[in-house]
Amino acid sequence: MADNSPQDLDRWFNDPEYRRQSMKKRKSWFSWKTWLGLGSVFTVLFALFVWYLFTGLPSLERIENPKPELATKVYSADGEVLDQFFIKNRSQVSLKELPPTVVNALIATEDIGFYNHWGVDLIRFMKAMVKNFISLKFTRGEGASTITMQLSRNLYLGKDDRNAVDKAVRKIREFITSVQLERRFTKDEILEFYFNVVYFGRSSYGISSASQVFFGKPPAELSVTQAATLIGILKGPSFYDPIRHPARATSRRNVVLSQMEKYGFISSEEAGSAKGELLTIKSEEEILSTGIAPHFVEHIRQRMVQKAVKHNFDLYRDGLNVYTTLNARMQRYANQAVEEHLSEYQKKFDKLWDWKKHKDVLQNVIELAILTSPEYRRADSNRERDSIAKALRTNSAWVDSTAKIAKQIEVGFVAIDPKTGNILAMVGGSNYKNFKYGLNHVTQIKRQVGSSFKPFVYTVAIDNGYPPTYELLNQPVTLIMPDGQRWTPANDNREFGGKMTIREGLKKSVNLLAVRAIMEISPKTQVIQYAKRMGITSTLYPYESLALGAAEISPLEMTSAFGVFANRGIRVEPMSILRIEDKNGNLIEETTNDKREVLSEETAFIMTTMLQGVVDEGTATRIRNFYHLPAAGKTGTTNDYTDAWFVGYTPQIVAGVWVGFDNKTVRFTNADGQGGRAAAPIWGRFMKYVYADKTINMPLEYFVQPPTVTKDSVCSETKQLATQFCPAKYAEYFVSRMRPDSCAIHTHAHWRDFEERRGTINY
């Protein structure tokens, strides 16, 4: 009808001819032109849809050259994986490395027709499409995804779908990509891709990572039961997590075993036996463990971040292999030594430390904790900060927790091969079992080193031509410091006497003798020069207090510098990374270390004999409760027992120990804070375990006496070479050309001779 007027309606019902004409006009709307227009619109829409589909597909180049994110692995020198750096924990494995049971379990459970289709099981696919359109639900898999389709989603199209339309589009894209994959790769290559990218939960991508995470073994060693467990997880990594949901994981594992039995991959007996096995998975604590050397690994990570700029690699995605200097067996002994010592030492300290007697210290601890708390730092205004501070001060649980952390004894331990500079073991704190963030007390702290600095003072004296028999006054001295203050150093026992040899002064760690030495025979500027030459990089001030270790130095610096004595005067920089390789084993960087002679061999040996006296008869004799082979070293204790040190060495290993507290106002309350008690036993335990382990194969060695050093009898009264008029004798070491005769002459000739020689040596 043209319109709805009464006349037209009346004519429509009463005039047949009018009705026919009106109908013809209506049919003209559906003429061929109309159909052409509709077809054109549909064609354009379909073309746009196809364009949308294909623009969301990966490029052919990306399919043929897939670049999945791979974890960087950190290895110890003896081949153990220490840790990994990753955003997605993924490691590559070849199909040849997988046992047949793993492949069979996957095919039996996910795609029994895998070797017969061309990427898509069309019948299953259409059934699933219809089913999902009816239910308006497109769940991943849904009985239709082949292994190839799952690979296409895992490897290329891993975006979350927001609605049913997105899911339908994703399925079609999987379909197309699967066909492309099948055209370009063999079935075995597709399986290998799949096993290297599929997600197993717990941040593990690929079966190699999953096998290590859940079972602590490479996939080649997986049993039938373990293989079935991992394949079962694929249906829902969170739902079938064997740690949190062991019953679900066991049930799903048994389904996989039944499928394997159904398709003839295992016998009924094997399936029954496997189903009867208990689910044995690493505990959550083991999975979350930071490994045996977390502080060392974090040190490596920081070094690698610096190297990434130079070599243009992505530490977290490129699957690098980092080979380090750490010895895993020695590291475990370092952990053991620290744990054994601190477990008993912490209990002893807790009994002696009473916060009621140290209220001022507690107040300092609380205020510092408030200032460094995340809530306080995030506050936008002073008013908000004041409110947060008040709330924390009145929170008894927070205060108790803060007080407990503050009195935690901390430790820094490092062992180095003095000949190569290789770091063999490192414990950067008492929290080595659960270290995530925080200080590495080997590399990131600097504390006053106390008497452990004295060897540098006496090294200058020996190198300046003064023998170990040289005597200094053990008498008080008062000095005017640059700020006008009077400084009157004293011995720890508050006793003093007449003269004493520098050997005896070092052995007993006599403060007054060290101060006299830096005043009379070891000039301050030379002491600083020698310390820097030997490896101390921290700032050193030319004051007499330097002789008593007033300088703040890191444990790594101190340990490395003592390595010069062990290495016969040769300085080698500490090193932690041996080489870096890409995922294919191509060398990116190999570390080499320069060696420099910084002391004469004679001086290094004579200092070693003096430092042996410290261990055998001096302040470090507690080491002999554990370790009885050749050793040399020096203890260090700072004022008020704030820091305790021991740095020592054998012919093959130099190791340093610092023990103290993060908050310097907390300190040991008695002589338990001495380096010989708080630090030296850790060193002794470590060396005992290392040298007793036959698998480490550390042969017994002695410090080598250079041919230019002689051992002569000395008169105990005159400290000169013994004669018939001085029958009382003891043995002492001297540089052959500088032995004291009846009238000792001490010159700087030896030092000058070495300086001249050093300039002509090629290293």
Note down, in words, how this protein is organized.
With 763 residues, this protein is of the alpha+beta class. It has five domains: 6-55, no CATH class; 62-288, Penicillin binding protein transpeptidase fold, CATH 1.10.3810; 354-406, no CATH class; 410-574 and 604-692, Beta-lactamase (3-Layer(aba) Sandwich), CATH 3.40.710; 709-758, no CATH class. It contains 29 helices and 22 strands. A five-stranded mixed β-sheet has the order 2-1-5-15-16, with helices on one face. A five-stranded antiparallel β-sheet has the order 7-6-20-19-18, sandwiched between helices. A hairpin with a 6-residue loop joins β18 and β19. α5 (100-110) crosses α12 (246-262) and α21 (454-463) crosses α24 (524-534). The radius of gyration is 38 Å and the shape is elongated. The termini are far apart. Residues 138-143 and 742-763 have low confidence and may be disordered.
Output the structural class. alpha+beta
Radius of gyration, taken over Cα atoms and rounded to an integer in Å:
38 Å
Proportion of beta-strand residues? 5-15%
Average pLDDT over all residues:
85
CATH topology of the largest domain: Beta-lactamase
Largest sheet: 5 strands, mixed
Contiguous low-pLDDT stretches (5 residues minimum) are: 138-143, 742-763
Percent helix: 40-55%
